[in-house]
Design goal:
Rossmann fold; alpha/beta; 2 domains; binds guanine; single chain
Length: 281
């Protein structure tokens, strides 16, 4: 079994991006800039944002975090986004989710200039991705995709099963696999026989938020299994895949932690650089 080392893959991607930033700096005399807006004091969000800032600095991006208290008015956030939209030094804008209840998430996402939407959540980018046009691609599915391609460069004709249909992960993951000519099945909480669907799959991406849902006897021989889950349990953090069981049957599997997570942040940096490059044309 190949244990897919997301930490190593992310470090390699960051090294490539660092070189690219240095080249862009010498060519344009400026570097791509990432601005993250963090609202409230949820601990996981604070940890994510700190990691994003650290990684951005490591590859040489200009990085800024704007913090607001939980009580901030929606209008203040929308005005800040407008300001960042017209700031030439800002290549990418990310508003960390989740947001407090009184702030309309969709309004915030749609306020971001699609050309600076490093999350790929704006309807314009969602539409472009599903139409096969150039777009920002949500960071987690992009990271999963890059890990899958490392194991199996030619995905054409492969059967892929995506477990979960969220806008953040499941749906964009499906689009990326379709683009690679996979036959894709999206499964969800109303799927009749999830085990039977998974048993057909050459590739499984589990992004559903149910601890250890995918079991060892759901896996076809030589399947590639990508675990997007981060679930807090009494036994610590576990993924959506039962690691011990699935590692006996799969050809390749991502661990949790150390699989998809590190790639997500590296892909955010990649998206920021790609937004910068598109803005320079
Ligand atoms: N919160 C958890 N994951 C994400 C993500 O990918 N983007 C944003 N903006 N917030 C998140």
């Amino acid at each position: 079994m190949i244990l897919i080392d997301g930490k190593k893959a992310a470090a390699e991607l960051r090294a490539e991006l660092k070189e690219e930033v240095a080249e862009l700096k010498s060519k344009h005399n400026k570097v791509p800039g990432l601005t993250v807006i963090l609202i409230g004091d949820l601990t996981p969000s604070q940890i994510y944002v700190r990691n994003k800032e650290k990684s951005a600095n490591e590859v040489g991006l200009k990085s800024e975090v704007i913090k607001y208290p939980d009580s901030v008015e929606e209008k203040t956030v929308l005005e800040k986004i407008q300001e960042l939209n017209s700031d030439e030094t800002v290549s990418g804008i990310l508003v960390q989710l989740p947001l407090p209840k009184h702030i309309d998430k969709q309004k915030v996402i749609e306020a971001i200039d699609p050309s600076k939407d490093v999350d790929g959540f704006h309807p314009m980018n969602v539409g472009n991705l599903s139409s096969g046009y150039e777009s920002s691609i949500p960071c987690t599915p992009l990271g999963c995709y890059l890990l899958i391609k490392k194991i199996e460069p030619n995905l054409s004709g492969k059967k892929a099963v995506v477990v979960g249909r969220s806008n953040l992960n499941g749906k964009p993951m499906t689009q990326l696999l379709l683009k690679e000519n996979c036959t894709v099945t999206i499964t969800h909480s109303k799927t009749k026989d999830l085990k039977a669907e998974c048993l057909e799959a050459d590739i499984i991406v589990a992004a559903v938020g149910i601890p250890e849902l995918v079991r060892g006897d759901w896996i076809k021989k030589d399947a590639i299994v990508i675990d997007v889950g981060i679930n807090k349990t009494d036994n610590g953090i576990v993924g959506d895949v039962h690691f011990d069981e699935v590692s006996k049957n799969a050809k390749a599997l991502t661990p949790v932690p150390g699989g998809v997570g590190p790639m997500t942040i590296a892909c955010l940096l990649k998206n920021t650089i790609d937004c910068f490059k598109r803005s320079q044309i």
